[in-house]
Structure formats: C-alpha cells, structure tokens
Amino acid sequence: MKAAPFAYARPSTVDEAVAELARSAGGGKVLSGGQSLVPALAMRLARPEVLVDINAITELSRIERSDGFAEIGATVRQRAVERDPLSTRIPLLGLALPWVGHRELRSRGTVCGSLAHADPAAELPAVACCLDASLTLVGPSGTRRVPAREFFAGAMMTELGPDEVLTSARVPLARKGDGFGFGEIARRHGDFALAGVAVHVRDGRITLTGFGISDRPVTRTVTEVSDSLLDDMVDTEGDTHASRDYRRRLFRVLARREIARAAREAGNG
Predict the structure, then answer these.
(1) What is the pLDDT of residues 7-32, one digit of tens each?
(2) 165/34 Cα distance (integer angstroms)
(3) Where does CATH 3.30.43.10 sit in the chain?
(4) Distance CA 183, CA 52 (A)
(5) Is the pLDDT of residue 268 over 80?
(6) CATH of domain 67-172
(7) Where are the alpha helices (DSSP H) in 144-268?
C-alpha cells in the first residue's frame, strides 16, 4: 500500500512547527525519525492531513548536560546516544538501547520519537519512567514539562496535545552507588517484548518498571519485592503471543534477575 495524500511542511524553528500543527486543527503529525510513523503511513493506519518534519530544527539535534541531567533533543538518533559517552553517565539507557529494534533502525529512530509513539512493548518509555525523566512539550500556550510517569496514558496514547511538539527528554545522570538492570524476552531479537523490566537501585530502594505487561509502562518503588507485587504489575489480558499467566512468569524471572544484578552493582559502587 501507499500512504494517503498529505501536505508536507519542513519548519526551521519550533515555533513554526507549532504553528503548522495549530493550523492543521488536529490533522497534523510530527515526523522525526519516522521508524514507526512511516510504516503506519504506508499501511494507512495513520492518515495525517499534514506531515510536519522537524529535522531541519537544529536546536533539537543536540544533547546537553547540566545540573545532573542530560537533555536529549527530539531529533537525536538512538544510535547517536548509544555511541555517545552519555551512555556511560546514564547506564540504564546504555543497557536498553541495544535491545531497541536493530542497528539500522536505531540509526534513524529517535529517543523522543519512541517516547511520543508510546508503544507499550517499547524499551525507551520504560527507561524514562524508571529514571523519573521529564519531557518538554511546546505548544501555542507555551512550554510545559511533564514527568514521564504521567506522560503515558495508554497504548499509543500520551499527554502530548495535537498542537504540541515533544522537544526534548530530560534524563537524570547516575550517581555514585546507583545500580541498574535491564532485560527483556522476545521471540527474536528486535521483536516486540513479551515482557521486560528496567531496574534502578539507590540507597536500598528499588525502582522497577515493567513493559510489554500492560498498556503503558508500570513503575513501582519499593524496599522489598514479592511475587504478588510482580504479578499485580502484569495486567495485560494476553494475546496470540503470550497469555497473562505466561507473561507473569516471564516478568517474575526477569525482575528478580535484574534486581539482583542492580543490587550487586550498587553494592560495589
């Protein structure tokens, strides 16, 4: 199939991009990496009236560091983050990125694009929630910052308004003594995760975020982990690939393994 007809805009500033979206009155769609959007266009699962390509907005292609945080711009490629020394300052991001699709897809796909797409089986939304990142949204009413844990509203649903642009993700840098773990199970590498977990251990507290187990990332911060807690986090009804009970078994194994890994790392820090 081919995409349905659409207008194309390539603004050079964020304000111009917001204006294009506002003019479309809900009919616009932002293009950054396009690794999720372009296939959806080709299958006519997405039919925007106008495609707003933000790749010419130079300010969105930067990674900036300050005050214990890294600000990842909306057009920064996943592969660029993977290769950047930043991945050593945000170890959980470095652990997760090799699991995102394949290298060729990461060469075009963007970190913020994955967050905006909000696939419940995606790795990067889980990382953002586990690390308590925040997302910067710019619209006609100005700029607002939304915690990642409040950004995801359901499968492919977010708090991003139809006339807003997700311009960056603000991710905390690791501290001395932090420990991290990340794991997932899929039928093949690069497939959607049947179950996955991101873990952050700090000062004896465990933050774990599950993905592929609900319609959005599920985060809990605790001092002790029980099987009942892990089972409660899995609320998907299941599908042709895996039942709810099977996903619960997978998630229990993954969570306990990665919590142990993160705790060892924190203890050695």
Answers:
(1) 999 999 999 999 999 999 889 999 99
(2) 15
(3) 7-53
(4) 35
(5) no
(6) 3.30.465.10
(7) 148-151, 227-233, 244-268
Kindly tell me the burial class for residue 240, based on how many C-beta atoms sit within 10 Å of its own C-beta (0-12, 13-18, 19 or more): exposed
- Characterize 111-148 residue by residue with b for buried, 16 or more Cβ atoms within 10 angstroms of its Cβ, and e for exposed: bbbbbbbbbbbbbbbbbbbbbbbbbbbbbeeeeeebeb
Q: What is the pLDDT of residues 91-105, one digit of tens each?
A: 999 999 999 988 888
User: Which residues in the chain are classed under CATH 3.30.465.10?
Assistant: 67-172
CATH architecture, range 7-53: 2-Layer Sandwich (3.30)
Residue keyed to tokens 């925007």: 48
Question: Is the CATH code 3.30.390.50 the one for domain 179-268?
Answer: yes
Classify residue 77 by its DSSP letter: B
Distance (Å, rounded) from C-alpha 179 to C-alpha 98? 19
